[in-house]
Amino acid sequence: MGLGKLMLRATLGGYFFGHGMQKLAGWFGGHGPDGTGEFFEQVGLRPGRESALLAGAAEVGGGSLLALGFLTPAAVSMLTGVMTNAIRHVHWKNGPWNTDGGVELPALVLAALAALADSGPGRFSLDEALGIRLRGPVVTALAMGAGAAGAVYFAEHGPELFDARDADDALSRATEQVGAES
Hints:
mainly alpha
C-alpha cells in the first residue's frame, strides 16, 4: 500500500503543481495569470485574472501537500475545489467522455482524491511520519464538501469578493482606524 499511494500522490500532486505554475508563472507552456485569466473570463469565472491566481495557488499548494502526503485533507479540499470549477465551467457541457472534453478525467481525479482522503496518504508520507491520522469517510466528506462549496461560492461571488472599490474602501477604513488608535 505504501509504494502505490506514494506513486499516486506524486503523480497527481506533481501534475497539479505543474498546472498551477502554468497559471501563476507561465511555466510548462502555460499562459500565466493574464492569459489564463482571459480564458477564465470566457468560461464565466470572474474576475478572470484573480480566479486564475486563486486556482493556480490552490493547485501549487494542494499539489505540493498531496505529493508530500502532508495535511492530506487540506490538499484534497483545495484540489477538489479546482476540479469542481473545472467540471462546472468547462467539462460538464461536453458530456461524460474525455474524447469530447467531458467530465471523465476530472471525475477520475476526484475519485482518486476521495480514496486518499478516506484511506490516508500511506506509510511513505509526512502525515504518517508526524502521526497525523486524519482519514475516513467523515474527513473525506468534510474535505471534499468544503473544497466544492468554496469553489462554487467563489465562482458565484468572485466579482463581489474582488471589487477593487470595496478593497480600497476597506483598506482606507483600516488605515483610518489604525491612525485613530495610535
